[in-house]
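Worked example 2:
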Amino acid sequence: MRAAVSLLGIVIALGITYYLITAQWSTKENSPDQPRRQIDITGVQSDLLTIGQAERRYLATHSNYGTLDQLQQDGELSFTGSSRRGYAYSTQVDDGAHFTITATPSDPAKSGWPTLTIDENLEVSTK
């Protein structure tokens, strides 16, 4: 009797373990495009930090923050345009004393991906 109960306990434990493992592998985070998504989001975060540092340099020379166009014209940014890695970048400058750069997914294949922002404190946040 004890052996049957022990065997039943082992079978139940194995069943629960199997269920948890298969449930974990079937989640969206473990989908085949997950590595590409992580790479792109990390690249966008890097872009935002680069833009934030360019804003600080622009502030030091112009006494206010600038738009993406102004940063590019001034040579503060090494890339041109307002779209990279399937994300569109936009600038919001408030009275030249505060800025927010927003990166929004613009590629239809990236719908559902997070929107990222950075402010004058160089804090990247996800929406």
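Residues 31-126 form one domain. Strands lie at 83-84, 87-94, 98-105, 116-119, 124-126.
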